[in-house]
Amino acid sequence: MAQIRWFQNQESFTVAAKGMQKAIAQWDIPIAEAAFVNGHCPTCDRQTLFEVNPGAMFAERPNLREGLRCSHCKLTARQRLIMLAMQQEIDSLASPLRGAMLEQTTRLYRVAHARWRWIVGSEYLGDDHVGGGQYWWSTHWWRWRHTRHESITSFSYASHSIDLLAHSDILEHVYDTKQALRECSRILRKGGVMLFTAPFFADRHDSILRGRLQDDGQIKHLEPPEYHGDGMARGGIYTFHNFGWDFFELLRESGFTRVEIGLCHAPDEGLTSADPAAEQPWRMLPLLFRAVK
């Protein structure tokens, strides 16, 4: 099974990532040019057929981070990377465990919860909802679900009550990142782990603030507006941040004692550069973060 390599600084990560350029050209480019590829799914732990392009694109090229969907578990490359990190982390933690995922209406949550019943899922349903409350919620009238509401800036979980916290592509959409990270740190016990993905600019030190939230709730755009697809919001969700390496400093200031970026390039297991035909494909390798309290 693929193993995630963890790095604590920009220098060691960049050397490792740039060292994969030849492997990306040899393995990832042919995958991006196919419609389906055979491989081994680390979530299913079985041979599978990966669908290369389930919809997400870079212009005319498939976005392999949101593609390479397993024909069995139906998870994308990003989702399977989260599952892989959770499995490897859980194997190293002592039971019993209490965990939280900041999604509940997704296939990723359903797969994770079926494997680890102690993981509690939630969605952000809006500021007019009460944290920890259960609400009937749907973005499609025929698919209503009883859904727990939690806000990453104001959890209902007690302090020091969670062993493992997982979320995927959330922080870039939260204006008050500092408050969000303080809340994540607050609910984790000492030694607890937060695993998460977020779009990351590996060649930048300074993060970019794309928009500033005004007192009247309107957004003052500092960069051209950018929206990402979101299953809970029709039309996508606004992106406030593009993170660079100074994001590590923010995590440490929020109470995390060890912060690492994980890299896992495993083409046979459907984990490739998101866009191997890009000018610098090493910047778009399968990445996620681990922050230990």
From TrEMBL:
Domain Methyltransferase type: 148-196
GO biological process: methylation
Gene Ontology molecular function, alphabetical: methyltransferase activity
Keyword terms, alphabetized: Methyltransferase, Transferase
Gene3D superfamilies named among the record's database cross-references: Vaccinia Virus protein VP39
InterPro entries cross-referenced by the UniProt entry: Methyltransf_11, SAM-dependent_MTases_sf
Pfam families, A to Z: Methyltransf_11
Domain of life where this protein originates: Bacteria
Transmembrane regions: none
Protein name in the entry: Methyltransferase domain-containing protein
Naturally occurring in which organism (per UniProt): Rhodanobacter umsongensis
